[in-house]
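Hi C.,

You asked whether I'd gotten around to modeling the 191-residue construct. I have! Everything is below, sequence then structure, no commentary in between.
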Amino acid sequence: CCLSQLSSLQSAPLYFPSHEVESRMSRTFSDLLSALPFEFSAPAANPVITSPITENAREVKPGGAFVARKGRNTDGHRYISQAVANGAAAIVGELPFDQVRADLQDVPYAQVSDGYQAFGYLAAAYEGFPSRRLVVIAVTGTDGKTTTSTIAYHILKAAGVKVGLSSTVSAVIGDTEIPTGLHVTTPPAHE
């Protein structure tokens, strides 16, 4: 039935996670911010972002950008100074500049209304919008998502389509299978 239509999927390139390609990434802060579909306060400086975007201050690498946002259990704005100490080249947050100025140590800051959404857009922009080069099939529902996804994965793979899979059990990218652990179905934006 549908296998004859799968040939158009052959051209979809295989995407590898950021840790495998990050050394090739480099974007200016303004380039990243321009990907936001909502208003933000533009910083005066425009550093080059040479390491990934993260919302975990412990994961900030020199040249990276840190997104501070209010979460369920903690407020990421409390960790701006740690992100700066780890080498953040830019900070994005939800609080007004005056409330975080002391922690920034002259690192450029952009205020956004929704740090959670901003994180997704900024991470995608940093990576060159990889999902725009993929055909994505999503399975939603209460029960059977992993089974359905796995069956679809094997059907497409048997048809010769370059295919990946993300489920509660594992993520499969090319020939590499990575356990997802803790039954997390949606990886964070930067993963």
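If it helps when you're writing up: The chain has a mean pLDDT of 85.

Thanks,
B.
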